[in-house]
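Question (not urgent): is this output format expected?
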Amino acid sequence: MRLFQPQRLRFSELSEQEVLALAISSEEDDARIYRGYAERLRADFPQTAQMFEAMAEEEDGHRQRLIAMHQRRFGDTIPLIRREHVNGFYDRRPIWLVESLGLDRIRAEAARMESDAHRFYVTAAQHSTDADTRKLLGDLAAAEAGHEKKAGRLEEQMLDDESRESEDAAAHKQFVLTWVQPGLAGLMDGSVSTLAPIFATAFATQDPWTTFLVGLAASVGAGISMGFTEAASDDGKLSGRGSPFKRGVSSGVMTTVGGLGHALPYLIPDFWTATIIAFIVVFIELWAIAWIQNRFMQTPFLRASFQVVLGGALVFAAGVLIGSG
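Got this back:
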């Protein structure tokens, strides 16, 4: 019994029949992925969804040509071999992961898929000794190489300037509502609300380790609270704010990050060194919040700066005064 038997085949070990079977299953998978993108985008981005439907039909055509070649050479029984069975073969990212990253990310992933398929067909053609099979694989390599350009042409045909601007604006709005807005609320809460307990503890005890533990507890506790509150407050169906899970993660993580920013310096044993660094971190955090408000929420920078910096300074002063009292 071989204890270290490899779990995947090397591409060089595949027979020509297995190479064709691998190509067939890969085309089937890619067509499903494109149709999955189309279904996901249909409601909000109908023109881009139509483009992905057209790309899925192209993959179906490739699959049919490959099946016809397999039937001619090897018969009707196609071996079950998929990309996960072959060592080093290109993978496909989970569709749920790509979908969560927005419209531009989906378009970029489609371009990567076509590039991966092109490289596969070039290698597969070199692997083949049958002239007709080699020609077919070479033709498919050329087709995949042209797909990125074709996708661009489809985009131009199906997405005029007005449609593209409308879809991009909708995608940006969805990104802001689902990720930026809850994340910004969390960052503000974590950065500002933890100032008082952290600096009150710091000046009351002048013990960096105790201050760090209080800051860690306050940050993690606030992150959990904000995350669950955001997720439970709105399912996103009527408001259009998107997945409650995504919003909860964004809010919870950024709340924790906002608090930890000025708690982590207290891992430094020297109290005044840690405190000075924490002051600097607070300054950076508050201005970062003002920049995000201006960049994504269209809040005038001066107004955002005044609101955030003044509010943060008041909370910070309250913490220092309470701790020094």
